[in-house]
Amino acid sequence: MGSDESKTDGMDFIRQIVADDLASGKHDTVVTRFPPEPNGYLHIGHAKSIVLNFGIAQEIPGGRCHLRFDDSNPETEDMEYVEAIQRDVRWLGFDWGRHLYFASDYFEKLYGFAISLIEIGKAYVCSLSEEEIRSHRGTVTQPGTDSPYRDRTVEENLDLFRRMRGGEFTDGEHVLRARIDMAASNMKMRDPLLYRIRHAPHYRTGDAWCIYPMYDFVHCLSDALEGISHSICTLEFENNRELYDWIIDNVPAPSKPRQYEFARLNLNYTVMSKRKLVELVEGGHVSGWDDPRLPTIAGLRRRGCTPESIRKFCDRIGVAKANSVVDVALLEHSIRDDLNTKAPRVMAVLDPLKVVIVNYPEGQVEELDAPYFPDDPPRMGTRRVPFSRELFIERGDFMEDPPKKFFRLGPGREVRLRWAYFITCVDVKKDERGNIVEVHCRYDPQTRGGDAPDGRRVKGTIHWVSAAHALTAEVRLYDRLFDDPTPDGGKEADFIRHLNPHSLDTADARVEPSLRDALPGDRFQFERTGYFIADAMDHTASRPVFNRIVPLRDSWAKIAGKK
Ligand code: ATP
Ligand code: MG
User: Fold this and answer.
1) Ligand 1 within 6 A of 210 CB?
2) Residue 48 alpha carbon, nearest atom of ligand 1
3) Ligand 1 center to residue 16 CA distance, Å?
4) Which residue of 1, 14, 42, 49 sits with most ligand 1 atoms within 8 Å of its CB, as the best mutation to test the pocket?
């Protein structure tokens, strides 16, 4: 995980930098920003950045964090994404107040900064083709070669750049480049592109512009215009920092933010690049951006995760300077850990097998009291669970020929029915093909509530529902979307091949009748099978639908416990 080595005094290295800057008087407070491009939905990796940027701002008196849409690319951006991103940041529990910004609102100012660079001879209009620019760039070991347009006069550059803006040229005919050094060891400094021509409408500025600034130009200057003190980004922008500083230093920028890089979150068994998420959604491999199998915030919400569990997960992984891959089991552990204290327990049988209690009077029904929180019964109190002659138990809780260590039901074996009675299996009924269709048991009326007055013990306790009273519910059992820990580790396009064909199983479960009152979004622990949520979109009282958020088995706790 590599989170701890960069911490001192329980502080990650970014917080340490901020603390030092406050102590030295370099800054009075902290201003951070979360700068998504609205070209897709947010994912759990973004959550790490959100929790870091908004978190730091909350911790420092007077601190604030901006939400800024980094929207300078007309081709892929959309209002749908702007709205989804705001919804997701809010749901995670963060508030930008009045500090909502759009880089596209700065287009005029950015244009002015470009003009000022041209005026001091530090930017020029280059008329090489995209291909030629690439071949002039050189390599890591070889310097690039100067563009033949590098020495255009300021007047000529100003004239051409104005005409670029005016729409006189076609896409790709000219670009504006910074005039730095074609032999710089940092390739990013070899006369990088600042503006390109794109005759494409922008989702916010419409047809107002046909030239659009490049990321490296937009980002640092947007930070400077907003007075960002610490511009926190992921490691792949490390080489961009030199250019970031160069641009700020060479234009009349109103402030001088500093960029710091931290390791992005990588999770196994999933993909996070927006391009790949778009491919999964648009290729119909998932049901939409909120498909519960996706690592998107919308997907995690639909699946039933709480915002607290995602924030807690982000705290646990920490903020480090070295890239690593986090085991998705840690995310699942954080979800369980949170739901454990929040989700009331109820009983649901996912794969029903009929049990007939042969010595229980026909037509009799007992209402048993069962606490919602067995470890803390007064909390939320109890609900009534009907018990009758015919029940359902989990098919997996019965074995006709069980091994010694199987502590559930088998011929001649006695188990406890949760909150009810001890039962002993006396017979097994099969269909003509030999499948078990019914298990016959006798109950011990002395054991009501689950204790034998003679002190007799049973090793197993199983859950059940009354057949006549249970509701039928659709349960959606989600598993990992990919069956490979690094689905995008091989050839780029190959990740689709690693889709897990069993990532979604649906079943008709029988659930206890108290769930009749469940509302969309209500979460429960179905005893022994997992945490579930009544689906926000599809659940109704007449057609209950529950998503499994996570199963109960916690492989992370086991891994962590072994250490
Ligand atoms: P793409 O997936 O196409 O690379 P992106 O995830 O970088 O896009 P942006 O909208 O540019 O999308 O990201 C907004 C912010 O979130 C950036 O500051 C970026 O550094 C941060 N971020 C993105 N992915 C991660 C991640 N996996 N872990 C931590 N931060 C991330
Ligand atoms: Mg990006």
Assistant:
1) no
2) 29
3) 23
4) 49
Distance from Cα 382 to the centre of ligand 2, integer Å:
50
What's the pLDDT score for residue 488? Answer: 84
pLDDT tens per residue, range 306-330: 999 999 999 999 999 998 899 999 9
Q: DSSP readout, 516-543?
A: GG--TT-EEEETTTEEEEE-TTT--SSS
Residues with active-site annotation = 37, 264, 274
Q: Nearest C-alpha to atom 25 of ligand 1 is from which residue?
A: 45
Q: Is the pLDDT of residue 7 over 60?
A: no
Kindly state the helix (H) or strand (E) to which residue 224 belongs, with its residue range. Answer: helix 215-226
Question: CB of 33 closer than 6 A to ligand 1?
Answer: no
What pLDDT, on a 0 to 100 scale, did the predictor assign at position 373? 97
β-bridge pairing 366-371 and 382-387: antiparallel
Express as a percent the part of the chain with pLDDT over 70. 96
DSSP calls for 451-486:
--TT----S-EE-EEETTTPEEEEEEEE--SBSSSS
Q: Which domains does the chain have, with CATH numbers?
A: 4-264 (3.40.50.620), 274-339+473-561 (2.40.240.10), 345-469 (2.40.240.10)
pLDDT of residue 450: 87
Structure pTM? 0.94
Question: Which ligand gives the minimal distance to the CA of 266?
Answer: 1
- The CB of 68 under 6 Å from ligand 1? The reply is no
AA letter at 132 = E
